[in-house]
């Protein structure tokens, strides 16, 4: 199963119907400057249960980057109801670009957004018994203004992800900031448990504020311990009672090794993961 | 005159011949992640006189980003000789992408680069008598590893360029780093003269190392005063004997106003501009 939509129109990849829409222009600002944002969505029974969290991040992009997303938002629910109802399970990548423009950084007024949705099979994300992290040498750019957004300027992640390959038995890499603080994985956020408190890095200077991350933070006092967002060095993770990663595809994934050191486990993480799955996957 | 080449093949925009090549894939990593670089080239009498400087920056990208550019370099001279010989004057934008890949940041092995060249009329770059700079509030991301490269992650420039519009009588904006140091213009490098010395910002932490900038630095002791690359605050520019900008289209452009304050002028800048034009424009 592979589906591709351009600005809401299904492009039939066999007959070529609508190929004109599949053709992305050299003048598109996503290609020229990375001028846009993306979201990785998990489809469950024809719906996107976490959409509220994705939409909140897109609204942040609307405010900070000035992307005019109101028309997009007003069409989205009907688009999903019409087109995804028969997709039982899948992974969708949504890219929203500022659209085409003439030469130069200046934003065309009015901008005419382009958006694309690619739907593919859910990758193999069964909870893994062994989940091993490496330490990335490539550090994150510091940019407080854009911190938290999932924009299309992602060379940092490309560089970090190139530091290990399949043979290394590594599932994810930890990225640090310029001060050597732990910030996130290349495609996930990170949490650690110490006593009765959960910690996650402060993302005010760099990093992507993930949807599952915000859900975990919103749980505090309910199914999750109190959460503290703070700067931390690697030793705090290595001496934690448990470490886990989050993203919209894996949900909550416990970490078993960091840089070949064994990480202790806690049943509190399983309780949180069960609650997440109940709300968003098997609800 | 508008010409467009995809991977070295001319795409006829009237007949549609070769349209398949003009169709940029949704899976292209330039679109997905900004995983690539670009160059803005000035064409003079069918040639690109500054190509050596552009090539040097591309070689830096080859080393730092791991872009496999050897095949591209080996084809380039013949491509130019075959296709640009009748272009008397123009502006070319070269984009080189890591190419298509499956979902995920991981770099496909081997990567199959895509490159596109768009040739348009030279914009109006006659040396302007009034050249006024504004001060951009949006600061540059800090990223020492990628500093100097002209990669496709350019949201900082998009944000900064959106701070003024045509009615403001502004020609360019000065961008600062997170410490408040002057770094560059949104599409140019910056120099200032004080006594017998020329200064330009240190670009080791952020910024784009322009071709004309490197030419100016290489002139020291010949037609240019001694150059110092350093961190500097705005007041050093406002109290300078002269300020000028550089890029491959405008060459060397004196600045007349910064944030509505008049900047003094020096004939030393004109001497340097004359030498630049002799070597690269009217040579």
UniProtKB/TrEMBL annotation, chains A, B:
Its EC number is 4.1.3.38. GO terms for molecular function: 4-amino-4-deoxychorismate lyase activity; pyridoxal phosphate binding. Its cofactor is pyridoxal 5'-phosphate. GO terms for biological process: 4-aminobenzoate biosynthetic process; folic acid biosynthetic process. It comes from the Bacteria. It holds the Pfam family Aminotran_4. It catalyses: 4-amino-4-deoxychorismate = 4-aminobenzoate + pyruvate + H(+). One of its GO terms (cellular component) is cytosol. Pathway: Cofactor biosynthesis; tetrahydrofolate biosynthesis; 4-aminobenzoate from chorismate: step 2/2. InterPro entries: Aminodeoxychorismate_lyase_IV, Aminotrans_IV, Aminotransferase-like, BCAT-like_C, BCAT-like_N, Class-IV_PLP-Dep_Aminotrnsfr. Keywords: Folate biosynthesis, Lyase, Pyridoxal phosphate. It is an enzyme of class 4 (lyase). Belongs to the class-IV pyridoxal-phosphate-dependent aminotransferase family. PANTHER family: AMINO-ACID AMINOTRANSFERASE (PTHR42743), AMINODEOXYCHORISMATE LYASE (PTHR42743:SF2). NCBIfam families: pabC_Proteo (TIGR03461). Homodimer. Involved in the biosynthesis of p-aminobenzoate (PABA), a precursor of tetrahydrofolate. Converts 4-amino-4-deoxychorismate into 4-aminobenzoate (PABA) and pyruvate. This is Aminodeoxychorismate lyase. It comes from Oleispira antarctica RB-8. The gene is pabC.
């Amino acid at each position: 199963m592979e589906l591709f939509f351009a600005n809401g129109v299904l492009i039939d990849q066999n007959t070529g119907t609508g190929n004109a829409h599949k053709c992305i222009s050299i003048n598109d600002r996503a290609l020229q400057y990375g001028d846009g944002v993306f979201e990785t969505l998990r489809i469950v029974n024809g719906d996107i249960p976490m959409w509220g969290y994705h939409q909140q991040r897109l609204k942040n992009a609307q405010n900070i980057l000035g992307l005019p997303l109101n028309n997009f938002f007003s069409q989205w629910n009907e688009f999903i109801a019409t087109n995804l109802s028969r997709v039982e399970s899948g992974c969708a990548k949504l890219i929203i670009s500022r659209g085409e423009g003439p030469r130069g950084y200046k934003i065309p007024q009015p901008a005419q957004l382009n958006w694309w949705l690619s739907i593919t099979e859910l990758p193999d994300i069964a909870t893994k018994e062994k989940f091993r992290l490496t330490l990335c040498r490539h550090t994150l750019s510091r940019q407080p203004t854009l911190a938290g957004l999932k924009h299309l300027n992602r060379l940092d992640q490309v560089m970090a992800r190139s530091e290990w390959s399949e043979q290394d038995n590594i599932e994810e890499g930890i990225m640090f900031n310029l001060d050597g603080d732990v910030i996130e994985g290349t495609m996930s956020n990170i949490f650690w448990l110490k006593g009765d408190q959960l910690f996650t890095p402060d993302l005010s200077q760099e990093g992507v504020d993930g949807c599952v991350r915000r859900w975990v933070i919103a749980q505090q006092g309910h199914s999750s311990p109190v959460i503290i967002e703070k700067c931390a060095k690697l030793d705090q993770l290595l001496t934690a009672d448990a470490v886990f990663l989050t993203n919209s595809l894996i949900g909550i994934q416990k970490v078993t090794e960091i840089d070949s050191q064994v990480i202790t486990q806690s049943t509190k993480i399983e309780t949180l993961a069960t609650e997440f799955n109940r709300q968003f996957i098997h609800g």
